[in-house]
Amino acid sequence: MLSHLLSLEGIEAVVVERHSRRRIEERIRAGVLEQWVADLLVETGVGDRLKREGLVHHGIALRFQGKDHRIDFAELAGGKGVTVYGQHEVVKDLIAARLAAGGAIVFEAGNVSVHGFDGDAPVIRYHVDGEPRDLHCDFVAGCDGFHGVCRPSIPQGALTVYERVYPFGWLGILAEAPPASDELIYAHHEDGFALLSMRSPQISRLYLQCRPDEDLNLWPDERIWRELHHRLETTGAPWRLTEGPVLQKGVTAMRSFVVEPMQYGRLFLAGDAAHIVPPTGAKGMNTAIADVRALSRALTAFFKEGRRDLLDSYSDTCLRRVWKVQRFSWWMTSLLHRFDDHTPFDRRRQLAELDYVTSSRAAATTLAENYVGLPME
Ligand code: PHB
After folding, report:
1. N- or C-end of the chain: fewer Cβ atoms within 10 A?
2. Which of 171, 205, 277 to mutate to test the pocket of ligand 1 (most atoms within 8 A of CB)?
3. Domain harbouring 13, CATH code
4. pLDDT under 70 in the chain at which residues?
5. Exposure string for 219-240, b = 16+ CB within 10 A, e = fewer
């Protein structure tokens, strides 16, 4: 996305990717675009398929104590909504657009390392087909994820880490089954959280709260479906979850993580390289795109007008929004999950909060405006 935004300003960028094109185009990741992200993809010319295939949603359901409570985004957040469209589909569209525009993407780059970013002449070193390469550049954008090489290349002591690890994970499946609901269902259940999401009118994406180190071998498909029925279906209601062949399954750990600042010299961190949220608020990809939008503006001001001010304020600009997204993701996670150390008091308080959020217009509005995406500066 960053290289796409920069190319529209006539700024050259090379994407150095560790994995194969196939792997990043197939790996199932996030799936919900905030309103402004969908708009940005369309405005910058990479939204044709998104417009055809993306599913626009104007609400979600919170399901607890056997009942659904709809949060109406259109009404509460000024007509805004979200678009359900897989991150790997966004990746496919961006790769196609970059390659069609003559952009450079190096796939399957090995031994990637970054150097010299504390001075004026950074270098990215890597191997392709066993051959060493040096890429000399003006700036390095560390968009290489939580496990990437950029953040650990910054000298110890220059970054402050803020972190919270949750005592649970999500077991997620992708199933060839028409979603049993037109909108996402976030279910609070005695035995743990469950989520019904989707990727298309034929493909469901479903999650169950599980142990953080859950062993997938203990979860044959029948057990996953049994547990999903149990947590998503409410006794007596006619609604039934639709089943189908399981196409993919995996366990996601849940963590809140931020480093400050998001910059060191000419190395700028963006997305998961700088911050992680638990997936409950569907914010990971959206926040990464917010970062690179700010970075593309700062780099444009630098190259076109010789201004450094936006580069200097990049970290502060991003972090202001990042921390609000952290708060929201932590809050959605705390509201909906079962915590083993919860007392009966805590469970009652959690249910009271769900009741409040779904019965007070003021409370529902704060959920809606965060979910569809906070304004960009
Ligand atoms: C997903 O479809 O993968 C998804 C949707 C909503 C979330 C998290 C994940 O909150």
Report:
1. C
2. 205
3. 3.50.50.60
4. 235
5. beeeebbebbeebbbbeeeeee
* Domain coverage including residue 39: 2-58+80-163+254-337
Question: How far is the first Cα of the chain from the last one, in angstroms, to the nearest whole number?
Answer: 18
Q: Are 179 and 204 in contact (CB under 8 A)?
A: yes
CA of residue 30 to ligand 1 center, whole Å: 6
Centre of ligand 1 to C-alpha 251, Å, is 13
Strand partners, 134: 125
Domains contained in the chain, number: 1
Tell me which of 27, 28, 32, 331 to substitute to probe ligand 1's pocket, judged by most ligand atoms within 8 Å of the beta carbon.
32
* pLDDT tens digits for range 196-235: 999 999 999 999 999 999 999 999 999 999 999 999 997 6
Tokens representing 241 are: 């979850």
Ligand 1 nearest-atom number relative to CA 172: 3
